[in-house]
Each structure stands twice: as C-alpha cells, then as structure tokens.
Amino acid sequence: MNAHPSLVIGEPVEIQDTAAQPDAMVRFENISKIYPAYRGKPGVSALQGIEFAIARGSITGVIGRSGAGKSSLVRLINGLEKPSTGRVVVDNRDISALTGRELRLAQRSIGMIFQHFNLLSSRTAADNIALPLEIAGWSKADIKARVTELLALVGIADKHDRYPSELSGGQKQRVGIARALATRPDVLLSDEATSALDPQTTRAILDLLANINRELGVTIVLITHEMSVVRQLAKEVVVLDAGRVVENGHVADIFTHPKHPITQSFLADGDSLPVSLVSRIVREPGSHAVIRVQVRGAGAGDTLVARLARELGLDVSLLSARIDEIGGQHVGSLVLGIPLDDSGGEGAATRALAWLSQYQISAERLGYVA
Ligand SMILES: Nc1ncnc2c1ncn2[C@@H]1O[C@H](COP(=O)(O)OP(=O)(O)OP(=O)(O)O)[C@@H](O)[C@H]1O
C-alpha cells in the first residue's frame, strides 16, 4: 500500500514487522495521544493509530493544517510528551519509557529548531550555542573549540560575539541550528523552522539543512504547513489530518498523484512548483533569474508574458505555468526566467519586478537557473 517500504502507515492500522526495518531511526508503534480534560476544558484526542517509521539518514516532511497533530508527534520523538498508547522507538530505544537522567541523556542525541529560534537574548551567538554543552558538562576548552567549529559549519563564523538582537532572522536560525547540533545528535527536529523567514532566506536555511543531512548523516524530521518546504527539502512526506496519517511516501510520488483531499488542497495552495523545476533552482547566479508571478482573474496570465517581453524588450522564458479555476476565478502562478545581463547583472530582473509591481501583480524572486 505504501510506495516506500520504510514508511508503513495505518488506515486501517497495519502492524509492521520491525525486524524488516533495521534502518529505522524513529518508529511510531500504535501511537495515540490524548490530552486529558483540564479545568473544565474537554480532553483532546490529538493523535490516533499512528504507525510508521522514519529511515535513518532520511529527510522526512510531516505536513498538516493547524491542529492536525504535528507538534504533538514531534514532541513524542524527543520525549517531551508521552504517548497515551504505544511506543516511540528512537535509535532502537523506547524513548517513551525513559525518565529522569536516562531521558535527558537520550535527548542529547535529538536536536530541535523552532519557528521563533528560542535564543537567549542575554547571550551572544557563541554563548547560545555553548549552552547545551555547558549543561552536558563539557570543559571550557572543548566548548570553545566546538562552538568555533559549529559557527563555521552554519556559515556565521564572524557572528561569534553578536547578540540575537544584532542578527537577521536567517542568522538567528543558523545559531539555532548550530545549538541543536552541538551535542552531535543523530536526529534533528525542525518545527516550522522557516515559517518566520522570507522566501530567499527560507531557501538558504533549507539548503543548509540539506548539507547537514548529507555531510553529517543526521536524520531530519521537518514539521511544516507549507508544501513548498517539503518539496524543496524532504524526500519522504507524511500527511497528517485530524490526528491521523492520511497519506505518505516519496515526495515525488505523492506530489504527482495526491490521493487524499487534504494533500490535494496543499498542492492547490498556489505555491507548488514542478519537482523538476525546483531541483533546477539554485541560489548562486546562473543564466536566468527565476521569478514567480501570481495571476488572478479572467484570462489571467494570457498576455502577461508577451506584454512583459515586448514592453521591456526581454527574452522571457516561461519555466512553468499553473492556472486553476477556483470558484469561477482563474488563479495560478507563472514561473518566468529572466536572463541576467552579459556581466551577470540583475538589471533585467529588477526592471521586470518593477514592471509587475506597477500593475499590482504580486511577484517574488525564487533564485536562479543555470
Ligand atoms: N498541551 C496540550 N493540552 C491540550 N491540548 C493540546 C495540547 N497540545 C496540543 N493540544 C491539542 O491537540 C491537537 C493537536 O495539536 P498540535 O499542536 O499537535 O497540532 P499542530 O498540527 O502542531 O498545530 P499547529 O500547526 O497549529 O501548531 C489540537 O487540537 C490542540 O489544541
């Protein structure tokens, strides 16, 4: 029933022979999570019948609408929450059974990054990164060496003595990533880590996470409500709805043949790009700047590319186009390639963005293609 043998999802619940999954880093076994009634508030059944595994070294996206149970699922992985039924096995240990010192030790091998970074404002970047090492009892000399290494790894070696208030959102998240990796975890949990960042910075942070996965072999579990984030980074995706896994498998399979209405609705959100195009978009200047234009209304986009090309005298390429009819309106997006100048300058792309903005057409720069 599943496209990928390491992901086994129940609906109805299919109990996996765990011996057949020697490479599972995280295994959810018959998990449910019920938050009990509290001070007159009714109990909440946040997760039911969760049964799947996350392969060692993989990048798995967990996507769902608000309240679907994503944060509950991720807090079960690092033992911040206990399941109401079932076990969560991380690196062959039942983390749900651990308490006290044993749990704290296990948590050192599971790093986490957050939407709002969760840095201490009174500490410099270096001292924020040092914190988990201080707690783990490392010597001052070892901490100093490790922090220098981590700052370089996340590309902010020059921000050692900066306070969070002196850093951009992307730089703060780099500090958060370095802190999460400090104790050399096997698993990195990302809870909406790019939701507060602009598209360009999001892309840079996702590239950094991809490098970390490739170079350090860290298993990444990525919680998000944005399909574009899953599409850019994850190889596997798990779609959650109302506490249940409704679809899972390879990202490319799920995106080309979404079966569940929730998955289809994520794809219709307008931020979707063909997988083949996403894999071509890079951050370093290539031959064309890539600009996504949102179009809306009768005949949306029909003449836009031709007008843009004619009025600005540009050789505009249409890299992708998607127009849906929603409630009788045409809504969609065009992805355009605008050639860089001979010297690699972005004058043409800047003029195109100004032209679009003059007509109140919303547009964003996604990166470059070679
Ligand atoms: N500590 C808690 N006590 C009671 N109910 C909770 C608690 N944490 C989460 N819930 C409830 O459990 C359900 C799932 O919440 P959860 O935060 O896991 O979803 P989510 O997909 O991460 O949502 P969001 O994207 O809004 O953060 C929701 O109905 C939520 O109100």
Automatic annotation (TrEMBL):
GO function terms (MF aspect): ATP binding; ATP hydrolysis activity
GO CC annotation, single: plasma membrane
Keywords per UniProt: Amino-acid transport, ATP-binding, Cell membrane, Membrane, Nucleotide-binding, Translocase, Transport
Taxonomic classification: Bacteria, Pseudomonadati, Pseudomonadota, Alphaproteobacteria, Hyphomicrobiales
PANTHER family: AMINO ACID IMPORT ATP-BINDING PROTEIN, METHIONINE IMPORT ATP-BINDING PROTEIN METN
Start and end residues of each ABC transporter domain: 26-267
Protein name listed in UniProt: Cell division ATP-binding protein FtsE
Family recorded in the similarity comment: Belongs to the ABC transporter superfamily.
Pfam families, alphabetized: ABC_tran, NIL
Function: Part of the ABC transporter FtsEX involved in cellular division. Important for assembly or stability of the septal ring.
PROSITE patterns membership: ABC_TRANSPORTER_1, ABC_TRANSPORTER_2
Keyword Ribosomal protein: no
SUPFAM superfamilies cross-referenced by the UniProt entry: ACT-like (SSF55021), P-loop containing nucleoside triphosphate hydrolases (SSF52540)
Naturally occurring in which organism (per UniProt): Bradyrhizobium zhengyangense
One GO term (biological process): amino acid transport
